[in-house]
Design brief:
heterodimer, A: mainly alpha, two-stranded antiparallel ribbon, 14 helices, B: 340 residues, mainly alpha, Formate dehydrogenase/DMSO reductase fold, two-stranded antiparallel sheet, 1% strand, globular
């Protein structure tokens, strides 16, 4: 592998990894804020316990997002210096605004929230979690503005070979960003919903297994208490889990509807803005109206090497046209139509410029890796849909106040936590890989020769060796793997500890000795 | 003179100054976890003096990086790609350090807690050294070609200035952290910290002063002499106050030393943002490395609004947690036991 390939792997791995933590941070943050508000308004103990328990898991996850986020910012300069030079004028602005206007707010206010329990006036303390979690959503907007500009550059002119900003308003209201933002945020809530649902299910199931909660003749729950574990598994504890489960299920279902609607809008834009990505996602070689439910590579030639090796197994007629144009008959362009169009517009070979290294003068493949786009697209939709169905089923199964005794349903519910994470990752892989061979995909509505686009092959840092890239790829990837294990172990331990894990006082541990001279209401 | 790029050069100096001032003491506290704290309780006191604020402090680094990307993309691209290996180490250090801060208290066994202590110590040390080396090299230069790319291999950046800058920031962080602990704790930690500050202050600030003098001499800068003089005065002031045990004034003196020192270094380097050691014609300067006036104007408006806001609410955080942290305030460790 050369430096370019390694840099691409590194970008993919660090981004997907970072994006395991981010959606949970965004989704859970706001959910915890709502729980604390419920406590503030009702004064009910169960909402306080909910806030503390989910808040603890939120923090364990949050810190990993922070720790890996800085890699994202640094790697543009480190591994993609030509990209940074080309786009800095436009792309740097939303990044800097994210740091200055959103991330500062999130980090500082979260510090106040963690350590400010009982120290700040209650209302002010409640405000800190609201501001911190809204700031994380605001932060996502800036990052998505930057990313959307790579997908669909606007508000820009080329001056002396670099992209310069001429219309900030256009950049910040890029229609690509405006559909990507809700899609991503709803995706984050799908993650949070599934997380609440799965973990609450686990606890309710354990309560039934331990014989704390039972069901009466009509199947309705009879809430009990554990004699030995005291406040840790009392009736309030039951309220925490059943309410968390319901909140989680509702959040997951609403999120899915949001994801589906915004995803539809996004797909329609994508067909106009990056038709090749959509055609590759469809394995659509020829123009048509049908949506492929399953396509496979023709294995006689040793797998699919060109688009024509792909065989559609099952198609739903008209659905593709509906997705693209809201009717059933307008044909959507396939790969074989698009390829000559791209070649005519952007050339058949990379220019003979040293910036392209060994790739200078080679033929350009405008078709992204189709296995990845095709399956990425499907995996995203399937996993997203699965978690919504699971949420609906969960609401139905718990209508009488508790979960079924079945062990395997409980295992499925816990496993189901992973589905929205997978859906998010698949979605990002699809959208980023589908943009290739461009790092800045051309905007088809720009006219003339000054089109703003950049091939990925030209974006990598020319001065950095493959060895250096490999060094960072290996060190970051192995650290990520290690820390993922650490995070999961910690989350599991705190989940198994139940609410007492986040509230020492429930465990019979005195939290603080002298409240009068208390300087921190929480201590590391 | 390019008005907007110069303004942004100053703003980026401010961001780096803010970063070193604020994260300076939490990086230092991180290093003191292994060298200064005597027992588990003291380590937890140390950790909790910066607990509520370290994350906000680190955002100064993220903002400095992002602002450089937006305002001086060529500076950002050349510097970050040239220092690929050391920056990778800084990233690894920052990742471990952040995670360790949060996870240390959740460790179940003594061995794991000790491992996180090492992560905090090494993470803080490597991050401080790496950032210092990077800043120093940006003011003394790197072997860059006409495109701004490093020549000479992955370690071409390694020279005396890198070491000097690294040492300067590490030593400053240590003394700054001791001064901070003098303000934030009581009892044994407070007295020992004060004694160490009084003894080691001039030695610890020497590398930073040497770096500033070197940059002034390299650039024959007369304009930088004033802030340099101020830095030296602040150093003497802090030293004098340390001997009289005036903790607040020591901390202020150190802060002025740092900010004046950074000002001297950046003033002397101006208009270069990153000189090339191969050919002065390849130097990156405020004019040839900056973004367009349109972007800089936009960013100026954002900064004019955002920076005072950040300073205000961050100052408020310090006010909320202004009381001294002592061993009595640290509750017993809470080990999580499985209930199911």
């Amino acid at each position: 592998m050369d430096a370019l390939e390694i840099a691409r792997w590194q970008f993919g791995i660090t981004t997907v990894y970072h994006f395991l933590m981010v959606p949970l941070t965004i989704g859970l943050g706001l959910t915890v804020a709502v729980m604390q508000t419920a406590w503030h308004r009702s004064g009910k103990e169960e909402y306080l316990r909910m806030t503390k328990f989910w808040g603890k898991l939120f923090l364990i996850n949050f810190i990993m997002g922070v720790a890996t986020g800085i890699v994202q910012e640094f790697q543009f300069g480190m591994a993609w210096s030509e990209y940074s030079r080309f786009v800095g004028d436009v792309f740097g602005a939303p990044l800097a605004m994210e740091a200055l206007l959103a991330f500062f707010l999130e980090s500082v206010l979260l510090g106040l929230w963690i350590f400010g329990w009982d120290r700040l006036p209650k209302r002010l303390h409640l405000a800190t979690i609201w501001i911190a979690s809204l700031a994380s959503i605001f932060s996502a907007y800036f990052i998505l503005v930057a990313n959307s500009w790579m997908q669909h550059p606007v508000g820009t002119e080329i001056v002396d070979g670099r992209a310069t900003m001429v219309d900030a308003w256009a950049v910040f209201t890029n229609n690509t960003a405006l559909v990507t933002f809700p899609h991503t945020i709803f995706g984050a809530f799908a993650v949070a919903g599934g997380f609440l649902l799965g973990i609450s299910w686990y606890h309710l199931h354990k309560r039934r297994q331990s014989g704390i909660d039972t069901v009466d003749a009509s199947g309705k729950v009879v809430v009990g208490e554990s004699a030995t574990l005291g406040k840790n598994r009392d009736k309030v504890d039951y309220q925490v889990w059943i309410k968390s489960l319901r909140i989680g299920a509702v959040v997951a279902m609403v999120a899915f509807m949001g994801v589906a609607l915004s995803g539809h809008a996004q797909a329609q834009l994508m067909i106009q803005q990056q038709p090749m990505k959509m055609a590759a996602a469809e394995a659509a070689c020829h123009d048509g109206t049908g949506f492929s439910l399953l396509s496979v590579g023709d294995l006689r030639g040793g797998g699919a090497t060109t688009c024509d090796d792909v065989v559609g197994v099952f198609e739903i007629p008209g659905l593709l046209s509906f997705l693209a144009h809201d009717n059933f008959t307008t044909e959507v362009k396939g790969v074989n139509t698009l390829l000559p169009e791209y070649q005519e517009k952007y050339g058949t070979h990379l220019p003979d410029n040293p910036i392209y290294g060994d790739r200078a003068g080679t033929e350009i493949n405008y078709l992204p890796v189709m296995e990845v786009t095709y399956w990425g697209f499907r995996l995203m939709i399937t996993l997203g849909g699965l978690s919504a169905v699971a949420a609906a089923v969960a609401l139905w199964l718990t209508r009488k106040g508790t979960v079924p005794h079945s062990k395997w349903i409980s295992r499925l519910a816990v496993l189901g936590i992973l589905a929205p994470f997978g859906g998010n990752a698949a979605g990002w892989i699809f959208t980023e890989m589908g943009r290739q061979p461009f790092v800045v995909a051309p905007n088809p509505s720009f006219q003339g020769i000054d089109q703003v686009f950049m091939y990925t092959a030209a974006a990598v840092s020319p001065g950095v060796s493959a060895g250096e890239m490999l060094f960072s790829l290996i060190s970051l990837t192995s650290i990520y793997a290690f820390l993922l294990v650490v995070e999961v172990v910690l989350l599991t331990r705190y989940v198994r500890g139940g609410i007492g894990s986040a509230m020492p006082e429930l465990d019979g541990h005195p939290d603080d000795q002298d409240k009068d001279t208390d300087v921190l209401s929480f201590a590391y | 003179m390019d008005y907007l790029p110069t303004l942004w050069f100053i703003l980026i100096a401010v961001l780096w100054g803010g970063y070193l001032f604020l994260e300076g003491f939490d990086l230092g506290v991180g290093m003191l976890m292994k060298t200064f704290a005597k027992n588990e309780k003291q380590r937890r006191v140390l950790l909790n003096t910066v607990g509520p604020v370290w994350d906000g402090n680190e955002v100064w680094l993220i903002t400095a990086g992002a602002a450089t990307f937006a305002a001086f993309p060529y500076w950002y691209a050349s510097l970050f790609s040239a220092l690929y290996v050391p920056l990778t180490l800084v990233l690894v250090a920052l990742i471990f350090r952040a995670v360790a801060f949060e996870y240390r208290g959740k460790a179940h066994t003594h061995a794991v807690r000790k491992a996180w202590d090492w992560a905090i110590f090494l993470g803080s040390f490597v991050a401080a050294f790496g950032v210092g080396a990077m800043l120093a090299l940006s003011t003394t230069g790197l072997p860059l070609n006409a495109n701004g790319d490093r020549v000479g291999g992955p370690f071409a950046w390694f020279n005396i200035y890198a070491v000097l800058g690294g040492l300067a920031v590490v030593a400053f962080c240590l003394i700054h952290a001791l001064a901070f602990l003098g303000l934030k704790t009581d009892g044994d930690i407070r007295t020992r910290a004060a004694r160490l500050v009084a003894r080691w202050l001039p030695v610890a600030l020497l590398p930073m002063a040497a770096w500033a003098v070197a940059v002034v001499l390299l650039n024959h800068s007369m304009a930088a002499v004033a802030p340099l003089g101020l830095a030296v005065c602040a150093l003497l002031f802090a030293w004098f106050q340390a001997s009289k045990n005036h903790e607040g004034l020591v901390f202020i003196g150190l802060g002025i030393f740092l900010l004046a020192g950074v000002a001297a270094i950046f003033t002397a380097a101006y208009p270069n943002v990153l000189p090339s050691t191969i050919d002065a014609a390849f130097n990156l300067t405020v004019s040839n490395a900056s973004s367009t006036p349109y972007t800089l104007r936009l960013m100026s408006i954002v900064a004019a609004f955002g920076l005072p806001m950040v300073l205000a609410y961050q100052a408020w955080t310090y006010w909320v947690f202004r009381k001294r942290v002592t061993e009595v305030h640290i509750p017993e460790a809470h080990t999580v036991t499985s209930i199911v």
